[in-house]
Design a protein that fits this description.
This protein is mostly helical and 501 residues long. It has 3 domains: 242 residues, no CATH class; 82 residues; 99 residues, no CATH class. It contains 17 helices and 11 strands. The protein is elongated and about 115 Å long.
């Protein structure tokens, strides 16, 4: 073992003490990783297996006193304090570790420059390494950096951790007996949550005193005066300390033992008192009722205090307002709400009554929804359909007669009528209209001629769609089809106007 001078004389146990050593100890140098070695490819540390093990190393760095930021620059934080530990706790929750500056600013309440300082401190202590550095190109969206959580080699030396493998992929295979006490304390710290710092001032420098472990061997101490003591619930149940037979890393550091410190339950929500229920109901009402948006939540809580104390929900309020009715124009929303809710808790004084009111309100909502759907469908059919029925009863009868005539022709019915048209000689019936006599064709042409005189091309267009252009021409003749085509084209022109004389 080698003895290296350090600004903080932290005493650590040897990884493998022997009789020849005579109880000698090693002194760790100060922690500092230059920027050129802050990449995964150039880092001398090893990749942390998960966030819990990494937080143990973070708490060790915070309490060791081996890192002094002001030795390397004249600005920024003065020490590795609780704010840096809180930033590290946020990074431990990310997988992959790709934090954006805006995300860390929102979670920590720090400025952009302060967040950059703490990320730089984590890189300079060897706890973070760049896998991909973010970019900021003018005119393009900024890309966040991708980090890898690392365990510095000083952490392994200080606790006597034995590793196997090469490079950053080294894995833990065991720990010295003298380092187990310190690892247990770090496990307790890593299992608790660190609260969000309330002030931006740096914490005092941690203690650099050494503590003596089992067997009288000096071990690196975690400062009790440091303000980075975590609080809150557990973040993981995995640890990194081990037993004498060198178990895998996932079973180390009493991770499966029960902690003597009772942990607060974070699974359930806090029970609200009477005032809290009032404010909760008021906040939900201001979000769900349009005419209450923008109102003061404390004022609405005071207005709805009686129904909130009676156990009403927002659905109950909706049902009651549907029963009372709502105003079309609201000038003072809180006053209107107070008027509508007057004696509501006395009328619907039981849970059964409120349940019945909710069912009626939901039934009315469903009926209104179906009515709106039918109205939308009818509107779409009216505006997007191929044909709209005329409003005039006389025109409706003419249209019905035309449709009936076309249906009779298509069905092959026969009748007696004269073959008269616009005074011109009509062509003979071809084989495409077999089963129709001349009188039936003459009647259809007379009705189509009347409709064309009124500017209505509907009978001929229906015949073309149902029978085809050739059969329609045989039925009505080329002159009527040509006239219908001219009228249909004239409808789309601004130079033609149709009307009655």
């Amino acid at each position: 073992m080698s003895a290296v001078a350090a600004p903080a004389a932290v005493m650590v146990p040897a990884p493998r003490p022997s009789a020849e050593d005579g109880g000698a100890v090693s002194v760790l140098p100060g922690l500092y990783v230059p920027e050129a070695r802050q990449w995964l490819s150039t880092s001398s540390g090893r990749v942390a297996p998960e966030g819990y093990s990494w937080m143990q190393a973070v708490h060790w760095v915070a309490g060791s006193g081996l890192y002094e930021p002001r030795r390397h620059r004249s600005h920024g934080p003065r020490s590795f304090g609780p704010t840096t530990v809180f930033i590290a706790q946020l990074l431990a929750e990310l997988s992959p570790c790709r934090p954006g500056i805006e995300y860390l600013m929102r979670r920590s309440g720090l400025s952009e420059r302060a967040v950059e300082y703490h990320l730089q401190m984590l890189r300079e202590t060897g706890l973070l390494a760049w896998e991909l550095r973010g970019t900021r190109v003018s005119g393009e969206q900024a890309q966040a950096s991708v980090y890898v959580r690392m365990l510095p080699p000083e952490f392994d030396v200080a606790l006597g951790i034995r590793t196997a493998g090469e490079g950053t992929a080294r894995r833990m295979t065991g720990i010295a007996e003298a380092g187990r006490e310190l690892m247990a304390r770090l496990a307790k710290k890593a299992s608790r949550r660190v609260r969000r710092p309330r002030s931006k001032t740096s914490s005092t420098a941690p203690s650099k005193a050494a503590r003596r472990g089992a067997g009288g061997v000096p071990v690196a101490a975690v400062s009790g005066g440091s303000r980075c003591t975590p609080m809150g619930g557990s973040s993981s149940s995995v640890s990194t300390a081990g037993t004498t037979y060198s178990p895998p890393e996932s079973k180390l550091a009493s991770g499966e033992r029960k902690s003597p410190t009772p942990k607060k339950s974070t699974s359930g929500r806090r029970t609200l008192n009477r005032v809290g229920r009032r404010y909760q109901l008021a906040r939900e009402l201001t979000e769900e009722l349009d005419w209450l948006r923008g109102c003061s939540v404390p004022r609405i809580a005071w207005v709805a205090r009686n129904i909130a104390d009676a156990g009403w929900t927002t659905a109950d309020v909706h049902a009651w307002l549907a029963f009372r009715g709502e105003a079309a124009r609201v000038r003072r929303a809180s006053g209107l709400l107070a008027t509508l809710l007057k004696d509501a808790e006395k009328i619907l004084d039981t849970v059964e009554k409120r349940d019945l009111a909710r069912e009626q309100w939901r039934a009315g909502q469903e009926a209104a929804r179906r009515e709106r759907i039918q109205q939308v469908r009818a509107r779409q059919e009216r505006f997007e359909g191929d044909w709209e029925r005329p409003d005039s009863p006389a025109v409706q009868r003419q249209v019905d007669d035309a449709f009936a005539a076309v249906r009779d022709i298509v069905a092959g019915r026969s009748g007696s009528a004269r073959d008269e048209d616009f005074g011109e000689e009509q062509p003979e019936v071809q084989s495409g209209l077999a089963g129709l006599d001349e009188d039936e064709i003459a009647r259809a042409r007379a009705e189509a001629s009347q409709h064309l005189a009124l500017g209505d091309t509907e009978p001929i267009e229906v015949a073309i769609a149902a029978m085809g252009p050739e059969a329609a021409e045989q039925l009505y003749g080329p002159k009527l089809l040509r006239r219908a085509k001219q009228l249909a084209t004239g409808f789309r022109s601004t130079h033609m106007t149709l009307g009655y004389r």
